[in-house]
Amino acid sequence: MADDRERKHTLTDLLAVMARLRDPESGCPWDVKQNFATIAPYTIEEAYEVADAIAREDLDGLKDELGDLLLQVVYHAQMASEQSRFEFADVVDAIARKMIRRHPHVFEDPSRREEFMSADLWDRIKAEEKAERGDGATSASVLGEVPVGLPALTRAVKLQKRAAKVGFDWPSLAPVLEKAEEEIAELKAAIADKKSGGAQERIVEEFGDLLFVMANVGRHLGVDPEAALRAANAKFVRRFESIETALAAEGRRPEDATLDEMDSLWDAAKDAERKG
Fold this sequence. Notes:
The protein has 13 helices and no strands. By secondary structure, it is mainly α. Among the domains are: 4-101, Helix Hairpins (Orthogonal Bundle), CATH 1.10.287.1080; 227-274, no CATH class. It is extended and about 60 Å long. The relative contact order is 0.05.
């Protein structure tokens, strides 16, 4: 018999591991005291780490991060099972049925493929499901289903998409860019007003308006603002580390250099990236 350490574990094993961790008598004290609310932040964090591995094109890392995200699903399902609400198998069954139901052009009638791509078939089926469950009574707004807990930029785009579906949208990118310029002007005015005793709250409001309209610019360009900002963050880190490396070669640190020196090193790193 092969060494158990060499055997590939299965989903059944993972479910058993989680059940053992949550055992009130012999489990891990930390895991036992967790609940849905305390685990939810980890679930969000793991989803971001999956996105990060994808952005870095790190497939080995992606394998590990997907495992961490799967653990979150198993964790929530285990806690629900302990309350006799549902099992992991119910989660699997529900999503499998949903995917089959929402893809009739794949599982029922191939002739509906064009309808799926051009006529919002997914959203229509989703709306029908909502009506059958009676969810429509909870919120009359077309924006009601957009989760509040989403990252702000992502939620902004989803809110804008929902509003656009009922005709509340600019017809092209040009007026969105004009709106962005208008919001920049309003932010500048709020900053000027602050210098003469105006309220900080107005600056916060105008800055938020600018971010919201920039998310809309991204939507009209087909750009995911969250992904674009993550890429910009990574680029900043990469170029700043180049500054640190260059200064370290001279036995210095950033705090030992002038802004002009660091700007010059930044430009050098930027040129090096562009040249490949």
